[in-house]
Amino acid sequence: MGAQLRELRQRIRSVDSIKKITRAQELIATSRIARAQQFAEAARPYSQALVRAMEAAAERARLDNPLLEGVEEPRRSAILVVTSDGGFAGAYSANVIRQSEALAGLLREQGQEVVPYVVGKKGVSWFTFRGREFGGSYVDFTGKPSYADARKIADDLLDAINTPAEEGGVDEIHIVSTHFRNMVTQEVRARRLFPIMVEDVPEEVHRAEAGAVRSGNGGSSGGSAAAARTDVLPLYEFEPSADEVLDALLPQYAGNLVYTALLDAAASEWAARRRAMKNATDNAGELQETLTRQSNSARQAEITQEISEIVGGADALAAAGSE
Amino acid sequence: MAEDLNVEVVAADRKVWSGEASIVIARTPEGEIGIMPGHEPVLGLLVAGAVTVRGTGGETVVVAVSGGFLSVSENQIAILAEQAELADEIDVAAAQADLDALGEDGDGAARWAQARLDVAASR
After folding, report:
1. What's the domain range around A260?
2. What whole-number distance in Å separates Cα of residue A311 and Cα of residue A323?
3. What's the pTM?
4. Sign of CA pseudo-dihedral A194, B66, A205, A228
5. What's A265's domain CATH number?
6. CB-closest option in B15, B43, B45 to A236
7. For residues A275 and A90, what is the distance between their CA atoms, to the nearest angstrom?
8. Which positions of chain A have pLDDT values less than 50?
9. Is the complex ipTM more than 0.90?
10. Which residues form a coiled coil (chain A) (predicted)?
């Protein structure tokens, strides 16, 4: 009986220290989400200006770049899989990998070869364990990606797409990453980065801009005039030429796309980690309560037994004395 | 000029500088370009080097850029570079170390290090 009580007390102590650790992890993750969001916010002016310039240049340049115009029958595709370096984030990496496997299956059905490019240690070990070959692996920054990291990935992807498929290059680039909707919802998204889908990003920016301008002006007449102005791009003079400007813009655009995806994924990773750690803390609390109850009843049982032993002993003595 | 230029210098991960200016001087592959209020819309590439912004108050801001481009329309100037640093922010030792490590083989990173050193030297 004494042994049981001692064991329970030991377990309560260890659960208590686990709870402290997970609680600390939860707090860290919460502050990291905010920081990841600040980085995403800081990157926004660049993305917006870049998209606007791309639109202007694309209108006037010849569009024979492999990043803009896909081949008729793509044979090889790259998938950039954005997972995390660390664990303790629930199913964050597993979800991304599952989605990327689904996309890979879809592409293989269309007769394409798939080359994964993997971000994050979790993804790298998943692919390595299964003996899959991959085009590139990038680790040690997923919690706090820098532009240089994104640049490196984008350069590798651009090298691949600028190489013909026969020589080991790819025709299309897809990305599977997690989008941070809010603190409680993050969703895994699979998108095609290149060749650029015309209706994809620019449309979103259009809408966002038009909305912002309208709400800023208030009056309906001013709003419509401003909206008309955003639709018509100024007649830019290109320096040196529209083609060259576009050719220089596309790699920057690629870097920007990867960077924003990494930032989005980083915020999601921390949100997933925060939730996982909160659950762990809650569970530890519950376990602690249950164990405390058990140890209390064990203690009571011990006391009860001691009393009954004393009483039994006294009775036996009294019985022996009276004889 | 009645109006001032509205200038934004933006790097890939942050806004480096923004404010009003009377003239902006930058370097394109075809030479220096100076932009004053009322300039026609331009979308130009930049080479690694200094961008000089003369503020309306007479102050001068020098920014080192790693390349990128500049867009001008209706007195709004956006200077976009993957990397950009204000002259005061440049860490000369780090730039020199980068340049030494890369050698002067003329690729992007080396030009960026050189640009930072040049801008730092002129401040």
Report:
1. 27-51+62-198+247-277
2. 18
3. 0.82
4. negative
5. 3.40.1380.10
6. B43
7. 8
8. 199-229
9. no
10. none
- Distant-in-sequence, close-in-space partners of A54: CB < 8 Å, separation ≥ 6: A202, A246, A249, A250, A253
What per-residue confidence (pLDDT) applies to A232? Answer: 61
In this prediction, residue A18 carries a pLDDT of 94
Residue in the block written with tokens 């030991």: A10
pLDDT at site A23 = 95
Check B80 against A244: CB less than 8 A apart: no
User: Would residue A75 count as lying in a domain?
Assistant: yes
Distance to chain B for A189, nearest Cα, Å: 23
Task: Flag if B45 and A248 touch (Cβ within 8 Å).
Answer: yes
Q: What residues of chain B have any CB closer than 8 angstroms to a CB in chain A?
A: 8, 10-15, 28-30, 33, 40-45, 67-69, 71, 73-74, 78, 80, 82-83
Contact, A100 vs A116, CB < 8 A?
Answer: yes
User: Is A253 among the domain residues?
Assistant: yes
Q: Return the structure tokens found at A285.
A: 């609390």
pLDDT digits (tens, 9 = 90+) for A43-59: 888 888 888 888 888 77
pLDDT for A117 equals 92
What is the arithmetic mean of pLDDT over B57-71?
86
Task: Write down the CATH number for the domain with range B5-86.
Answer: 2.60.15.10
List Cα–Cα distances, A95 to A83, A177, A281, B89, in angstroms. 9, 9, 22, 41
What is the total residue count of chain B? 123
Is A290 a member of any domain?
Answer: no
Count how many domains chain A has: 1
Average pLDDT over residues B82-91: 84
